[in-house]
Amino acid sequence: MDWVLSHLDEIWALTVAHVGLAAPAILLGFAASVPLGYFASRSRVAGSVLLTIGNILYTIPGIALVVLVPVAAGLAILNPLNVVIALFLYAIAIMVRSASDAFGSVSADVRQSAAAQGFSPVQRFWRVELPLAGPVLLAGIRVVSVSTVSLTTVGALVGIPNLGNLFTDAFQRQFPLEAVVGLVAVLLLAAVFDVVLSAIGRLLMPWNRGTSVRGRDRARLEALPTRPNVTGV
Amino acid sequence: MGIEFHHVRKTYPDGTTAVEDFSITIPSHSTTVFVGSSGCGKTTLLRMINRMVDPTDGQILIDGEDVSGIEPVALRRRIGYVMQNSGLLPHRTVVDNVATVPVLTGVPKTKARTAALGLLDRVGLDRSLANRYPGQLSGGQQQRVGVARGLAADPNILLMDEPFGAVDPIVRDELQQELLRLQREIGKTTVFVTHDIDEAFLLGTQVVILKRGGLIAQVGSPAEILAHPADDFVADFVGAKRGKRRLTAEQQGQGDDVLLVDSSGYPAGLVAAPGGRLDLLPAGSGPKSRSISNKTDQAGDA
User: Region entry Disordered: which residue ranges (chain B) (predicted)?
Assistant: First the structure.
């Protein structure tokens, strides 16, 4: 415990560095996977090609990827971007499949009916398909988030500082406590990411809290003159 | 004017023909029902009107204007569309669902919502449901919202694709009566698709009986079709051949009521006959004499 208290500054700095690597990879991976997943769900050919590429990407060992990315991208070996790119590729590998499933989960009835009401294809994507794919997209990004936070630790092996440094340090110094501290920190960080993501999901998808509303919520719904426009669309 | 189909054909790339050669005129401000078994092309025909499906050959005119020259999105916004299972957007509240098309065409949101509340009244829904999500409504309520949404842009044409097919019989009766009332009030050019001949006869001013491939077996008013079925197919389809429509007075019911049975002895309805004497009934009492020809109506009257 004394060690933890005396090293709080260092642990905090590593945590911040960790977030700096993981968060962009998760967000960019999500942003790239949504259009890719949409095409994968709309065309059988695109679907099988994209999902196969995703599977192959995911089988590449983490260490191999962080070593190969700087060579392929022509970046300096100690550039943190290398780790972000590697994590981004892993995020896509998982998320494209989730996104494809998410768009596949939108009922054909609703899509047809939206077209029949006169939504243009672009409006239909933004106002109907994307929000309705939301719950499955959210489930996907939560998996990606947890896995990315844990994978980020590999960066420590190629000299990019993050919470993984606590593992390499512990190994070199034969000091297991430090590894345990690292493990707990990674778990806590993953939990924080998950809570934040599900809170955002609940805020953006108020219709998704179960089909039957419990008494208290129902009373509140009826009391509302108009619903605050939380979806913003 | 109304809607005209001129030699419309629809062949899919795989070679199947959904519609062979279909021509008809649908008069304005009345209800035309396409009725037929599944696979007769009735839904395909309906969807050609708002260009959800484009015909391979032939023309469809709305008030003389060829729909193939109208941009599909713009065309669909001026035609109301109600489908089975409502097709409501599950992530929008009832009031926002009803306001969908006006908002798409640029009407300010608050104005569109206010108008939507008025439409809820019109279709017989309580305003307290306005802020619910579709998943929190019953099937019948969802269909009413679907009808309100179809009417929101005040279209001249309303397309209805088996809108009451998935609700239970009692609710269906209610919705049918409600639609008849609405139609009397607003008089839209309505094209209604169903496989239920009772529903077709109840709602249709003009009924189009379809065979496989969109072939017209008979067009006419319910009374014409029932009195003079064009062929055995029609007679069979409307139930005349099986004796379902041939009713005879069987026995005295309560008061002046006389029980009517079809030719297989199935009790089909009641008719009020003073003193139990059918020969005293005024001929043609009621526009379609529905009370003795149509089972559906009795539940509606009850």
Answer: 281-302
pLDDT at B281: 62
> Which range has highest mean pLDDT (B49-53, B232-236, B279-283)?
B49-53
CB contact under 8 A, B104 and A119: yes
Residues in chain A with CB shorter than 8 Å from the CB of B75 are 118
CB pairs under 8 A between A and B: 78
Closest residue on chain B to A135 (Cα)? B91
Max Cα-Cα span within chain A = 67
Question: Could B101 and A227 be called an inter-chain contact, meaning their C-beta atoms sit closer than 8 Å?
Answer: no
Exposure string of A153-162, with b = 16+ CB inside 10 Å and e = fewer, is bbbbebebbb
Q: Which alpha helices (H) appear in chain A, and where do they start and end?
A: 2-6, 8-42, 44-59, 62-73, 81-104, 108-117, 121-124, 130-151, 165-173, 176-204, 215-223
- Looking at the predicted structure, is the pLDDT value of residue A211 above 60? no
In SS3 terms, A149-174 reads as HHHHHHHHHHCCCCCCHHHHHHHHHC
Interface test with B, best of A105, A117, A138 (most B CBs within 10 A): A117
Give yes or no for a contact between A102 and A133, defined as CB atoms under 8 angstroms apart: yes
- ipTM at complex level: 0.78
Q: What is the mean pLDDT of chain A?
A: 86
- Is pTM beyond 0.80 here? no
Do residues A155 and A63 touch, judged by C-beta distance below 8 A?
no
Cβ atoms A157, A65 nearer than 8 A:
no
Q: Is there a contact between A110 and B87 if contact means CB atoms under 8 Å apart?
A: yes
Which residues share a beta bridge with B22? B8
Task: Give me the residue from B87, B109, B135 closest to A112, CB to CB.
Answer: B87
The DSSP secondary-structure symbol of A71 reads H
B283 pLDDT band, cuts 50/70/90, is low
B90 vs A: CB within 8 A: yes
Percent of chain B with pLDDT over 90: 54
Q: How big is chain A, counted in residues?
A: 233
> How far apart (Å, rounded) are the C-alpha atoms in residues B88 and B161?
14
B152 touches chain A (CB under 8 A): no
The tens digit of pLDDT for each residue in B66-75 reads 999 999 999 9
| B88–A contact, CB cutoff 8 A | yes
**Residue A216 pLDDT > 70, yes or no?**
no
**pLDDT for the residue numbered B249:** 77
Residue B124: per-residue pLDDT: 87
